[in-house]
Amino acid sequence: MGSNVINLSVSLRSAELPVWNTCDGPDLSPELRIRGLSEEVQSIAVFALNPFEPGCSFTTWIAWNLSPSPLIPEGIPPQGVVTAPVNAVQGTNDYGSIGWRGPCPPGGETHRCIFKVYGLDAMLDLAPGAGKHDLIGAMRGHVLGFGDTAATYSR
């Protein structure tokens, strides 16, 4: 990413994911709030990472071609092409499934989920179900803004 990338402010409802965003509930994708999007942003891409799973960047959710909106609503269904509650395309996470997969730590442990949000200058021509490396490659040269946030979940 170049040095002229705009800093986006990304936030969740709270610093701890509610049970409904995890394996102990219906495992809905969380609501993300984004501030600082410029008019040049044509789409948003989202990565969610759980650094407690094996591998340094275990990805639990990738989505792209989201409308540049200050709110990504909760509960995006786990399918490749989504038209409600928002338009989006989702890829295959590191569990091998499409869509959000919330934290599911062993009893007595806390997992952290990191959300990385990118504002892009284009819609990406990337097939539903693509992997994180495909998405990273497709985003190259298109990033106008970046922001991140994190939340924890304990059992």
From TrEMBL:
Q: Which UniProt keywords apply?
A: Protein kinase inhibitor
Question: Which species expresses this protein natively?
Answer: Methanoculleus methanifontis
Q: Name one Pfam family in it.
A: PBP
Q: What is this protein called?
A: YbhB/YbcL family Raf kinase inhibitor-like protein
Residue intervals passing through the bilayer: none
* Record bears the keyword Signal: no
One of the entry's Gene Ontology molecular-function terms is: protein kinase inhibitor activity
The record ties this protein, via NCBIfam families, to: YbhB/YbcL family Raf kinase inhibitor-like protein (TIGR00481)
**Is this entry keyworded Ribosomal protein?**
no
The protein's matches in PANTHER family, at most eight in alphabetical order, are given as: PEBP (PHOSPHATIDYLETHANOLAMINE-BINDING PROTEIN) FAMILY PROTEIN, UNCHARACTERIZED PROTEIN YBCL-RELATED
